[in-house]
Specification:
mainly alpha; Rna Polymerase Sigma Factor, Chain: A; Arc Repressor Mutant, subunit A; 2 domains; extended
């Protein structure tokens, strides 16, 4: 068999089904490929229910361990990511069920790190552009965080992870029509939240480095 370099997991052509087949044949080290391919997606899904990094990582670990134990139950005609997410959601809901009465696992205020979105730098951005991009990401994350969990989860799976409606339906155990309704409502609420943020902000503000550059240039000329 063709040897696989684990760090080539993103671009390697081997499918999840083939990876799983080789794991069954004894190459259990290849399970790392499945972890790395699905870490971001699984993290985002669990975080749509719980906003506690340690708790999320613990649930992710339990999810991967349970998936490995039950790997023989995975059907090759299904998508591994969808199957994994179902396990992750079940693990999350079980955790919430035992702790909901005692701890608010999804506070909407006073947390500093969202980590829902990751906007890659496709170019070398100057500090001002990086700051603007970071602020835009934080604004959108805040709007998403304001959603009720049933809308937030659908939005993250469909709009951020790019899963189709059928896949989202399978992951969440909803009808496709219900997924569409929740997605539409989520978009409406995000739009309303972003509008509220916008009207409270001085848009097109002439500040930061633009102001500094102009002041410096003028002071050199006078």
């Amino acid at each position: 068999m063709e040897p696989i370099k684990i760090n080539d997991y993103r671009t390697h052509k081997i499918s999840d089904s083939d990876v799983i087949s080789r794991i069954h044949s004894g190459e259990k080290e290849l399970y790392e490929i499945l972890l790395r391919r699905n870490n971001q997606k699984l993290f985002r899904v669990i975080r749509s229910y719980i906003n506690d990094l340690e708790e999320i990582e613990d649930i992710m670990q339990n999810t991967y361990l349970k998936a490995y134990e039950k790997l023989h139950q995975f059907k090759s005609n299904a998508q591994f990511s969808t199957w994994l997410i179902r396990i992750g959601i079940n693990e999350t809901l079980a955790r919430l069920k035992t702790k909901r009465k005692h701890v608010d696992l999804y506070p909407t205020e006073n947390y500093t790190t969202n980590l829902i979105l990751e906007i890659p730098d496709a170019e070398q951005l100057n500090p001002e552009k990086k700051m603007i991009r970071q602020e835009a990401r934080q604004t959108l994350e805040k709007a998403i965080d304001q959603l009720d969990v049933k809308y937030r989860t659908v939005y993250i799976l469909r709009e951020i992870e790019g899963m189709n409606v059928s896949e989202v339906s399978t992951c969440l155990g909803l009808t496709t029509s219900n997924v569409k309704v929740r997605l539409h409502r989520a978009k409406e609420m995000i739009r309303e939240e972003l509008y509220e943020i916008a009207v409270k902000t001085d848009i097109f503000e002439f500040g930061f480095s633009k102001c500094d550059r102009l002041v410096e240039r003028i002071m050199k000329l006078i």
